Amino acid sequence: MQLSEFWVCFMQIYLYWYSFLLEASVCPEKCDCSFKNAIHCSGPHIKDLESLNLPCNMTKIHITDTNVAYVQDVFSGMGELQHLVLSSNNIALISPVAFKGLRRLKALKLLDNKLVELPPEVFSDTVHLQQLIIENNRLKSIQENLFDRLGSLEDLFLNKNQLRTLPSGVLKKLAKLKVLNLSRNSLAALPRNIFSALTKLEKLMLYFNRLSSIESGIFDSLRELLELFLHSNDIQSIAPDVFHHLHKLRSLTLSRNKLEILPPGLFLHLRDLSKLTLYGNPLKSLPEVLFGEMRNLGSLWLYHTNVLPENVFSGLKELRGLSLHTNNISSLPEGIFQSLQKLQNVSLFSSRLQVLPRSLFHNLKHLQKVYLNSTKLHLAELELSGNPLPSVSPELLKGLPSLTMLSLSSNALHSLHPQLFTAVGSLQDLRLRGNRIEALPHGIFHPLQHLQALDLSQNVLAELPEGLLAPLTALRILKLSDNMLARLPPRAFVTLIQLAELHLDGNQLVELPSGSFTGLAGLRQLQLQHNALGSLAPAIFAGLTNLTSLSLEGNRLAQLPAALLQGTPCLLHLSLARNRLQTLPRGLFANLSALQSLVLEHNALSHLPAAAFHGLAELTALQLGRNNLSVLPAGLLDELPRLTSLGLEHNRLSHLPTDFFNANEELVRVRLESNPWVCDCRLAYLLSWLQAFAEPLIHLQASCIGPTALTGRPLLEVTLPPQACGHHQGWDVARGEDTPGQCTYSDPEGTLHVSCNATSCQQLSLRLPPPPPGEAARLGPEYQGDWVLRSSCGTLRVSILVTVRDGEKDISPGVPAAP
Fold first, then answer.
1. For 575-732, which CATH class?
2. First and final C-alpha spacing in the chain
3. pLDDT value, residue 399
4. How far apart are CA 18 and CA 541, in angstroms?
5. Residue 775: partners with Cβ closer than 8 Å, 6 or more residues away
6. Residues forming CATH 3.80.10.10 domain(s) in the chain
7. Which end of the chain, N or C, is less packed with Cβ atoms under 10 Å?
8. CA count, 13 A, side-chain hemisphere, 114
9. Residue 664, pLDDT score
10. Quick one: pLDDT at residue 728?
11. CA distance 551 to 524
């Protein structure tokens, strides 16, 4: 920067020219200067910082997501700058004088760049820097004196680089440092005195490196350390006294290393520790004395281990959560939990445990959840998932009158004892998903009158015994998905008057007996997808007046009764995808005035009636993709004013009718790809609509197959204005006979005719309906009408009121607006 420019900046600061707002004329192009003394510039168009001509009085500068590769001395003279963010750019080089003169700088962020090295003197003037973030770059090494001038630094982030070693004195001047992040590098070893000057450090992150050992004395100076993260390294050995001076440590992670043994008394001095993870180590044994009096340790993760001594947890009197799952332990010592008087949650699932000691959980008065097994306690939830259990004895659940949730999912259960649930009458949630249950004994659910959710999905049930579900009168959710059910007993669900969700998908149902869903007036969700249904009775869904979601996807339906959905007026979501439908009966959806989404893709539809979607005024999403549609009737979508998403992909469409989307003002997403579009004048309306309304990314793959000159061109790149095709033989003429400058509008019933030009409308013709038989005309309003009419000239709204005055009819039309 030249001397004259420096004095200009100095005078600007002195006079507070920018004291309240940086004026738009000074703010660099494509930068944001909304906040006082702050500027944010971003975008790939920025390739160098000099071209921005940054103002000199800024206190905050953010430059992100640019193509800047080199930082020169563009910040010279910015003596007021306190926060500088140069993140997510392509910066590979920084000038040694890039930050010269920035003596008030407090925060510097260089994360997400491509820095390979830093000049030794680059931070010489930033003596008041408190936060330095160089995360996610490509640094392989750093100079020993790089941070010597940063005596005020509190946060240093060097994580996500490629550092293999650190100079022993690189941190020697950082006496005020509180947070140091060295994670996600390639550090294989640490100099013994690397942290000796960091007497105020509170958080040290070393995870995801290649450390193989932790040597004695390395943490001796870190008397204020609260959090130490050593997980996900290659640590095979730890010095016995390495943690002895960390009296304030609260969190320690050693998980996912290669520790086979732990020194006796390793954690004896960590009395304030509240979190400790050891899982993911190939621990062959644990010493009898490992933990001291840890008054704050609330949770302990210790899985993937082989041996647990009986007294290993002595001293952990405050422990509330213990995770021992995914171990290789086949048995547990009987008194292993005796000292854990405040234990609330125990996780043992996915282990090799076959037998549990009878008194394993005795005297644990605070126990609330056990994942794998239980004791005679007042447990509310019991999880026995993910074990190779072939059976469960009723004795296991005795003495659990307060149990409300029981999960036996993902085991190897082939059958259930008829009396299994006798002792758990308060059960509300029963999960039996993912077993090999072939049949259910009659009466097994008799005790479960309070059950609200039953999950039997992913088993091999071939049938439901008649009356099996009758006792479950409080049931709200029933999942029978992914079984082998080929039939349903008549009135199988008749007593389930509270049922809101019924999942029968993924079975082998060929038909649904009459009355299958009798009694389910409160049902809201019915899943029948992926069965083998070939036909449906017209009244099969009668009475499901509260149903909001129905899926019949993936069946063998070739046709549907017109009255199929008359009894489901509240339906919001309907899927008929992946069937064999060739057409839709008239009035199929007439009673679905609340329907929001309709999926008809992956069928064999070749023809749709013009009124196919009559009554669907609330429909927002319509999927017609992957059918055999070659022509769509004009007006097909006219009754869908709220449509926002339409799928027409993978059909045989070459054209669409003119004004096809005129009634769909909210439509923005239309999938058109994989159709044989002929980009002649008959497609001019669609091409124009795409340019005006559609989301471009949705249509990148939709292209023309003709004419020859346009073959392969994306529809979005073809411009064919309708006025250029006004006399084309194949052009769709809008309603009425339009001539240049003159348009004729009429409604489909022929009630109204009106002619308009660009400035006015004339020749209004109205055909009134005859009065009711026996009624004479009376004073006051007799006829009122309101129309929205369209032609190629535009849209016209007409309102008409006919009144009778003193025995004479007075026609008072509203003034129609010119198109």
1. alpha beta
2. 61
3. 67
4. 71
5. none
6. 575-732
7. N
8. 12
9. 93
10. 42
11. 12
